[in-house]
Amino acid sequence: MSSFLKGIFVTGTDTGVGKTVASAALAWTLRQSGKKVVVMKPVQTGTDSAGLMDIEFVQKVMGTNYPIEEVCPYRFPHPLAPSVAASFVGEKIDLEKIKSAFYKLSSTQDTVIVEGAGGLLVPITDDYLMSDLAFDLKLPLIIVSRPSLGTLNHTLLTVESARSRKLEVLGIVINQFPPNPDVAESTNPELIIKMTGESLLGVFPSDPEISVEEGRMGNLRDFANSSFSPELGGSFVVDEFLSKLRLKTG
Predict the structure, then answer these.
(1) 3-class SS at 3?
(2) Which of 19, 141, 174, 213 has its CA 20 to 30 A from that of 202?
(3) pTM of whole model > 0.85?
(4) Where are the domains of the chain?
């Protein structure tokens, strides 16, 4: 793996797109390829909700037990944007605390995967966005997108936003790809590549047995390697995937 993958910033085209599942699966894949890897969630909101936090799910997948404060410096009860969730409890997010946590983890790991909250333009503080954090940490982006109708607009907007902010886009990962895709789902992957000009680095299949909140891993570990490209330690071959989709659509 090249040195610029000392860290990766995982963002999404929307909230709930599956960044946590993608981050956990990628971390597992990298570990199986022999890398020391950890996932960091700078800010977790909605901790009052029943079930596991995102970072707790990742640690369950990885079989690790890092102290929560080291891999998730800020945790807030309300399911809101970080800046709003912090203000609701009278706290202010210290950006240096987040950066220090990243650098500390980075000193002992081959790769630190940083999972953002929501998309690139979600505010961490009143005047500091997720995109600013990725920029300051000098991390390339993996954009997690949906396969379904509407994903072209969301994915293109995210890529354009990243470029306008001088962020490197490592590639795109499509999450929750169905076993029997409809026409939109069958044609969207190739269109995403053509319209964004970015690489498709993986496709993670839909698995109803996976639930972050309930801590159910389903077949995540089994799917992981075949869901990511060799650049990310896996065996996914994009040309083979696209060829199969073309056969389905004639």
Answers:
(1) helix
(2) 213
(3) yes
(4) 3-249
